[in-house]
UniProtKB/TrEMBL annotation:
It comes from the Bacteria. Keywords: DNA-binding, Transcription, Transcription regulation. PROSITE patterns: HTH_GNTR. GO terms for molecular function: DNA binding; DNA-binding transcription factor activity. This is GntR family transcriptional regulator. The lineage of its organism: Bacteria, Pseudomonadati, Pseudomonadota, Gammaproteobacteria, Alteromonadales. Residues 11-79 form the HTH gntR-type domain.
Length: 123
C-alpha cells in the first residue's frame, strides 16, 4: 500500500487518506482481512498528526470499509469493496441541499435557514 499526502492540496489531509485507502481496496492492493498499520505507525510513516489518521480510520470504520479488532489491530472489512461505494458525506450534502431548496421555495430567507440550522445543531 502506497499513500502520498500532499499538504499543499486544498483537500483535507484525512480526506486524502480516506480516498487513497478506498482506492487501494478497489484496485485490489488491500484485500478483505488485510491488516492496516496502527494509527501511530501510519501517522509516523506519513508525517501526520495521529489525530488526523484516527479521524480517517474512524470515518472508514463508520462506513464499513475497515474494522477495528481491539488490541489485535485494524483490518480491511470483508465487505469493504462494496462499502467503498458508499459516500455518506455526499448523501448528507444532497439531503441538506434538497431541504434548503424546499425552504427557499417556501420563502424562508438564508438568514432564517442559518439560524434554524444552528439551533438544530446546538440542541
Amino acid at each position: 500500500m502506497h499513500v502520498t499526502i500532499n499538504v499543499d492540496d486544498p483537500e483535507p489531509l484525512f480526506t486524502q487518506l480516506i480516498r487513497q485507502l478506498k482506492q487501494a481496496i478497489l484496485d485490489g492492493h488491500l484485500a478483505p482481512g488485510a491488516q492496516l498499520p496502527s494509527i501511530r505507525q501510519l501517522a509516523n510513516d506519513l508525517e501526520l498528526n495521529s489525530k488526523t489518521v484516527a479521524k480517517a480510520y474512524r470515518l472508514l470504520e463508520r462506513d464499513g470499509v475497515i474494522q477495528s479488532k481491539g488490541y489485535r489491530g485494524t483490518f480491511v472489512h470483508p465487505e469493504a469493496r462494496s462499502n467503498c461505494q458508499t459516500d455518506l458525506n455526499q448523501w448528507v450534502n444532497a439531503q441538506i441541499a434538497e431541504l434548503i431548496t424546499s425552504l427557499k421555495e417556501a420563502g424562508v430567507t438564508d438568514s432564517e435557514i442559518r439560524i434554524a440550522f444552528s439551533n438544530a445543531m446546538n440542541n
